[in-house]
Amino acid sequence: MGRSEQRELVNRLVVLLLHLLKWRFQPGRRGNSWRLSVKEQRIRLEAHLEDNPSLTAKLDQAITRAYRLALIEAERETGLAESTFPTSCPFTFAQIMDDAFWPE
Q: Residue 102 falls within a domain, yes or no?
């Protein structure tokens, strides 16, 4: 398992978590672009994990790291205060990857 594969895992998670946070905390701005981004990242993340099954053991660490970065992006992109968002990831990996999951 190389570092580039780990970085790719975290990067995919950042984008996915960012859009899930925006979906939850900016319901009035929900749109097709965010929905499609979530859908795309779920597919890409699933494929990346299939190609690199050893990364599964690093998921908790990757989610923690990705969430910290997603928080920074969420604050930047939404203009909402950092205190608006949970301090730790409010989503399980199962939820993150579930096509039917949309945080309300």
A: no
Which of 26, 18, 8 has its CA nearest to residue 69?
Answer: 18
pTM of the model: 0.95
Full domain range(s) for residue 50: 3-97
Structurally, the chain folds into a number of domains equal to 1
pLDDT per residue over 52-81, tens digit each? 999 999 999 999 999 999 999 999 999 999
Which of 62, 53, 68, 72 minimizes the C-alpha distance to 7? Answer: 62
- Give the residue among 90, 87, 62 at the shortest CA–CA distance from 72: 87
**How many C-beta atoms surround the C-beta of residue 32 within 10 A?**
7
